[in-house]
Amino acid sequence: MIVSHLNLTDFRNYETVDVAMVPGANVFVGSNGQGKTNLVEALGYLSTLGSHRVSTDHAMIRQGRDSAIVRARLENGDRQVLAEVQINRSGANRAQVNRSVIKTRELPRYFSSVLFAPEDLALVRGEPSGRRRFMDELLVQRSPRLSAVMTDYERVLRQRNTLLKSARASGVRGDQLSTLEIWDERLVEFGSLIIEARSQLIAELLPEVAAAYSAIAGADHEASLTTLLSILSTDSRDAEPELDEAATRGGSISATDAGEHFRAALARLRRAELDRGLTLAGPHRDDLVLQLNGLPARGYASHGESWSFALALKLASAEVLRRESPSGDPVLILDDVFAELDQSRRARLASAVEGFEQVLITAAVLDDVPAELAGHIVRIRAGAIEEDA
């Protein structure tokens, strides 16, 4: 799959812009603050319904405007698709494919991309919430139906937490809170599906991460992934738990097994949850531990190792998506990546990505981009295409 044309209206600093793209490498060059990252952010949003820079959609709407429009023409062989999303400051966002209205959450089934940016260093060094978001966004790209499951889980979680807080305030305990059991079952129903899907995803990512890290770093380091499940832990603190060894899980877990462990955890943690007014087990509290040579990368990896690990996660994601996608390779987006790498790692990364159907690269300085990737060059200045070569 490739993007042949991108049109933006009132998106970030663009009043309107049209950009033509080609198969292979496309390089967006411009000084900081000119708008090159805004272009790839728009495409990232089209495939994940989220931004790698901000947590709310409103920040992407041009100041003083009520909405922003992202429109992309996608090509896969002889097939063309026009995908559009309107991001609204008030009211629900709207989406269309080939001018027909669709549910916004269905957009990822039409366009697949993997974006790597400096912010992704937080996958290695940041909090568990970022790693959960990484897994869930990739899951939705693979199977858009899981978006509804995740939405249902978050809704039930909010309702259950509200009930727990109300019970704490009123002093209700034990069997008096029979309503909680109803929410328990719904939480387990949706949560078990998420746990199963995440565990299967990690099992598939593991060999790809190891191969990608070796290709990028060129060092004798073994990169691995370990899942930590809160439903297997005895930790009941309010904060993101440093899960104990019992919560470590290798390989995949079925929804049935996850459901059994989930119910047992809720029963075990019932008193602590009532005391705190908070749900203390479930996929909303799980983590993905990244390891180098058996040690947690968070806290042990150097800056270069952390950067390479985060990039390996994204390259592994792209490999998993391309392996099973009927629409070809995902579009690979590298946002301001090469400036952070030394010459040898730049060359290795170029070798790792040149086989993808389309690679979009942003750079402040063209010389930072390896010559083999400096194909179609688009120069950006002050929210406008200055030159297209």
UniProtKB/TrEMBL annotation:
Domain RecF/RecN/SMC N-terminal: 3-363
Main localization of the protein described in the UniProt heading: cytoplasm
Binding site for ATP: 30-37
Entries under SUPFAM superfamilies matching the protein: P-loop containing nucleoside triphosphate hydrolases
GO terms for cellular component: cytoplasm
GO BP: DNA replication; DNA synthesis involved in DNA repair; double-strand break repair; SOS response
PANTHER family in UniProt: DNA REPLICATION AND REPAIR PROTEIN RECF
Family designation: Belongs to the RecF family.
Known role: The RecF protein is involved in DNA metabolism; it is required for DNA replication and normal SOS inducibility. RecF binds preferentially to single-stranded, linear DNA. It also seems to bind ATP.
Protein name: DNA replication and repair protein RecF
Annotated source species: Glaciihabitans arcticus
